[in-house]
Amino acid sequence: MQWESWSAFWQMGGAAPFVWGSYGITALLVAGELIMVMRRRKDALRRLLRLRRARASGGGRRAFEEIVE
């Protein structure tokens, strides 16, 4: 599509609330997904570090079960 001006582009032929609203919702969902992935990665790294420390200290199976739960 070609628009006559920037104003026409932003108005999207009267469908601007739907078009820009869907872009906004998508951006929020993608940002939320990134935040959740970063948190889960951080938690997983913490659990792995605790597991490594438990194994190094000779904690054995009991220490592993505490970390997994």
From TrEMBL:
GO terms classed as biological process: cytochrome c biosynthetic process; cytochrome complex assembly; heme transport
UniProt keywords, alphabetically: Cell inner membrane, Cell membrane, Cytochrome c-type biogenesis, Membrane, Transmembrane, Transmembrane helix, Transport
Keyword Phosphoprotein in annotation: no
Localization, UniProt: Cell inner membrane
Alphabetical list of Pfam families matching this protein: CcmD
Domain of life: Bacteria
TM stretches of this protein: 20-38
Membrane topology: Single-pass membrane protein
Protein family according to the UniProt entry: Belongs to the CcmD/CycX/HelD family.
Cited function: Required for the export of heme to the periplasm for the biogenesis of c-type cytochromes.
Protein name as it appears in the record: Heme exporter protein D
Species, as recorded: Aromatoleum aromaticum (strain DSM 19018 / LMG 30748 / EbN1)
